[in-house]
């Protein structure tokens, strides 16, 4: 029998009685750190409406403060880069367009620019093709920024913004559908040209859209900019300065919101961007608010570029002159989708055996690309989209790697989230605008 | 001297190992089981044999000379570190020995006349069968100050570690993890070298040329379909 300092014992007629004294709970509890005792680990995602797709964040919380944040990606990995090695160079477009599903045109253009640089035919791309590429990339940028505005609005409690953003984006997807037959994953921009020319009906739609969107943008700004909740959820939240951005490799609107006007369309132009007149919007706040301002201004700049592109659009060929690269058929959009034009089918099946051979070889086997490697980068809605393409001289890519801005930018989440409140993780993550299809490829 | 891709007779081994059922078949086998190019029409562009890419002679042209001279001045041991310099398609590639890559990156970033502040991309290419040191890791550096780009390339054999550049370019963190995940190249000094895109318990490194496309059976609603390289083939 041992006696404890917490309990005295005495003998009574009814047996031994213990009297528990205790009373020192204060000293015991104070020796334990109350904060670390409350530390909890929360798994946010991979299925979560506020993570912009299948992104998983492992958060360590003390109360509402995030002490550690670890992003986990890869849930949407589909091996696109590996698949490219088993298809010919032209077929690759169909794969790369599915990476970042909100910026198909940028994915396709970057890939095609890389293939064209490997072929050494960059200068031979026709004026009309370059203009259409620029126009569609800018429309895509508007669509992507509208989705950003829509989803970010939703995540920060402005549900109506979600409805409006997606509504306006649908106008742009209509234009894409009119031209390529598909709303998304267009496979429209091809090495050496375009799948087919832009029909007049699509041009009319673009002109209508140019008149329509500025009014709507004003409405959104009226709705959001002055609203106190929107301001408080965005201003001073998830700050990342230029040094932090460069160290972590962050490009695009996030970098520009920190004040550095780095935009590949200006600094390292491609597709003739140097001949368009537009500004590179920046902000100085380096927070979510700044990124909102930059993206809204970028939509307006993109509208300016689209307008200039429309004005300089002249009739002309869309395919490169080199018949050993150019797609042999003029594709046409029929009732059942995109296919060979009937005239072309009549020619190869009925009149010219050589045309049939030419068509067959180029479509099934594809063209050969001289060996070597290139790195081509374009300004994607989310930052620098780089394509590292390697050819061994065959008809298939030897290796294609995408430097995806979503993938690289997501590394900034811990820098933005740690030490901040849990609710700001949502705002900060949303302000990076990650698209997991692009991140995981 | 390493061999560049596309040297005569350098069939990527992956094409040989690969899936018999891949459609269309490997280009090197031609459309109908023909060996070589199978090109009798002259259509598919004449195959020009290209000599292995040797050192490009000076002057390299453009800003490439400035970059090289500035690097040489800032990093006296450059001749030891550089294996060769290749200028191709208006791009400068410096082939760096693996053990020097971290120091070269440090100089490239910090020297006032170089200022490659941004490491745009880190990725790898597997030259299985054409180079003893099969993995070539490419670092695409961007100088925002001078608006220049340079590629550093490091070649290592399977099982050889490469110093991690995360200390100089923190952005390389995830990209080196991806290279490790996809190729199995180990980066020494990386803070957290784990798989990033594939599941943690995945076996093998999918982007290697000797790793088949698919590689695992496809399970769908109770049915199990074999991986593409083991399916029935008609030819």
TrEMBL record, chain A:
InterPro entries: NADH_Q_OxRdtase_suD, NADH_UbQ_OxRdtase_49kDa_CS, NDH1_su_D/H, NiFe-Hase_large. NDH-1 shuttles electrons from NADH, via FMN and iron-sulfur (Fe-S) centers, to quinones in the respiratory chain. The immediate electron acceptor for the enzyme in this species is believed to be a menaquinone. Couples the redox reaction to proton translocation (for every two electrons transferred, four hydrogen ions are translocated across the cytoplasmic membrane), and thus conserves the redox energy in a proton gradient. It comes from Actinoplanes xinjiangensis. It catalyses: a quinone + NADH + 5 H(+)(in) = a quinol + NAD(+) + 4 H(+)(out). Belongs to the complex I 49 kDa subunit family. It is found in: Cell membrane. Its main location: membrane. GO terms for cellular component: plasma membrane. This is NADH-quinone oxidoreductase subunit D. The lineage of its organism: Bacteria, Bacillati, Actinomycetota, Actinomycetes, Micromonosporales. It holds the Pfam family Complex1_49kDa. NCBIfam families: NuoD, PRK06075.1. NDH-1 is composed of 14 different subunits. Subunits NuoB, C, D, E, F, and G constitute the peripheral sector of the complex. PANTHER family: NADH DEHYDROGENASE [UBIQUINONE] IRON-SULFUR PROTEIN 2, MITOCHONDRIAL (PTHR11993:SF10), NADH-UBIQUINONE OXIDOREDUCTASE 49 KDA SUBUNIT (PTHR11993). The chain crosses the membrane at residues 146-166. GO terms for molecular function: NAD binding; NADH dehydrogenase (quinone) (non-electrogenic) activity; quinone binding. It comes from the Bacteria. Keywords: Cell membrane, Membrane, NAD, Quinone, Translocase, Transmembrane, Transmembrane helix, Transport.
From TrEMBL, chain B:
Residues 1-10 have a biased composition (Polar residues). Its main location: membrane. Residues 1-29 are annotated as: Disordered. It is found in: Cell membrane. The keyword Isomerase does not apply. GO terms for cellular component: plasma membrane. Keywords: Cell membrane, Membrane, NAD, Quinone, Translocase, Transport. It is a peripheral membrane protein. Signal peptide: none annotated. Pfam families: Complex1_30kDa. It comes from the Bacteria. Its EC number is 7.1.1.-. Residues 94-215 form the NADH:ubiquinone oxidoreductase 30kDa subunit domain. NDH-1 shuttles electrons from NADH, via FMN and iron-sulfur (Fe-S) centers, to quinones in the respiratory chain. The immediate electron acceptor for the enzyme in this species is believed to be a menaquinone. Couples the redox reaction to proton translocation (for every two electrons transferred, four hydrogen ions are translocated across the cytoplasmic membrane), and thus conserves the redox energy in a proton gradient. HAMAP family: NDH1_NuoC. NDH-1 is composed of 14 different subunits. Subunits NuoB, C, D, E, F, and G constitute the peripheral sector of the complex. This is NADH-quinone oxidoreductase subunit C. It comes from Actinoplanes xinjiangensis. The gene is nuoC.
């Amino acid at each position: 029998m041992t006696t404890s300092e917490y309990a005295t014992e005495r003998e009574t007629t009814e047996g031994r009685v213990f009297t528990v004294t205790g009373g020192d709970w204060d000293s015991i509890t104070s020796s334990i750190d109350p904060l670390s005792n409350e530390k909890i680990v929360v798994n946010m995602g991979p299925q979560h409406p506020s993570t912009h797709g299948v992104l998983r964040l492992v958060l360590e919380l003390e109360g509402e403060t995030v002490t550690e944040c670890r992003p986990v990606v890869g849930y949407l990995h589909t091996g696109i880069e590996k698949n490219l090695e088993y298809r010919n160079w032209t077929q690759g477009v169909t794969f790369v367009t599915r990476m970042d599903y909100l910026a198909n045109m940028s994915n396709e253009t970057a890939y095609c620019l890389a293939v064209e640089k490997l072929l050494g035919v960059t200068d031979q791309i026709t004026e009309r093709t370059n203009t259409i590429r620029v126009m569609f990339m800018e429309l895509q940028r508007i669509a992507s920024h509208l989705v950003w505005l829509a989803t970010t609005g939703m995540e920060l409690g402005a549900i109506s913004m979600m409805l409006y953003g997606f509504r306006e984006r649908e106008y742009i997807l209509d234009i894409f559908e009119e031209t390529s037959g598909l709303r998304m994953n267009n496979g429209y921009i091809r090495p050496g040209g375009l799948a087919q020319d832009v029909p007049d009906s699509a041009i009319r739609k673009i002109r209508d859209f140019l008149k329509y969107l500025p009014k709507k943008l004003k409405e959104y700004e009226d709705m959001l900019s002055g609203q106190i909740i929107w301001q408080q959820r965005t201003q001073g939240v998830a700050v990342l300065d230029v040094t932090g951005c460069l160290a972590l490799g962050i490009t695009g609107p996030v970098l520009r919101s920190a004040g550095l006007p780095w935009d590949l369309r200006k600094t390292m132009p491609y597709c003739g961007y140097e001949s368009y007149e537009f500004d590179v919007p920046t902000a100085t706040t380096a927070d979510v608010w700044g990124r909102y301002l930059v993206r809204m201004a970028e939509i307006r700049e993109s509208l300016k570029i689209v307008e200039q592109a429309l004005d300089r659009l002249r009739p002309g060929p869309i395919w490169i002159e080199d018949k050993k690269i150019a797609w042999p058929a003029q594709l046409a959009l029929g009732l059942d989708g995109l296919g060979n034009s009937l005239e072309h089918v009549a020619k190869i099946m009925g009149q010219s055996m050589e045309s049939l051979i030419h068509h067959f070889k180029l479509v099934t086997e594809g063209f050969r690309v001289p060996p070597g490697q290139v790195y081509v980068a374009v300004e994607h809605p989310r930052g620098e989209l780089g394509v590292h393409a390697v050819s061994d001289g065959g008809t298939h890519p030897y290796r294609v790697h995408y430097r995806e801005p979503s993938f690289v930018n997501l590394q900034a989440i811990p820098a933005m989230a740690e030490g901040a409140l849990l609710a700001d993780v949502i705002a900060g993550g949303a302000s990076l605008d990650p698209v997991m299809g692009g991140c995981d490829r | 001297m390493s061999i560049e891709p596309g040297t005569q007779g350098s069939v990527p081994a992956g094409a040989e190992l690969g899936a018999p059922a891949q459609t269309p078949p490997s280009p090197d086998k031609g459309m109908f089981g023909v060996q070589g190019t199978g090109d009798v029409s002259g259509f598919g562009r004449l195959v020009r044999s290209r000599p292995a890419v040797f050192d490009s002679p000076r002057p390299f042209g453009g800003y490439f000379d400035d970059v090289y001279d500035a690097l040489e001045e800032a990093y006296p041991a450059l001749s030891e570190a550089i294996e060769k310099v290749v200028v191709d398609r208006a791009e400068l590639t410096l082939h760096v020995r693996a053990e020097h890559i971290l120091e070269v990156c440090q100089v490239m970033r910090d020297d006032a006349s170089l200022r490659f502040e941004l490491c745009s991309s880190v990725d790898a290419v597997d030259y299985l069968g054409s180079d003893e040191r099969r993995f070539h890791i490419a670092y695409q550096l961007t100088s925002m100050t001078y608006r220049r780009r340079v590629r550093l390339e490091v070649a290592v054999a399977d099982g050889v570690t490469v110093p991690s550049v995360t200390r100089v370019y923190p952005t390389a963190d995830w990209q080196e993890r991806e290279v490790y995940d996809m190729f199995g190249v180990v980066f020494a000094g990386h803070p957290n070298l784990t798989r990033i895109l594939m599941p943690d318990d995945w076996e093998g490194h999918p982007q290697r040329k000797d790793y088949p496309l698919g590689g695992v059976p496809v399970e769908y609603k109770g049915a199990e379909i074999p991986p593409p390289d083991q399916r029935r083939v008609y030819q």
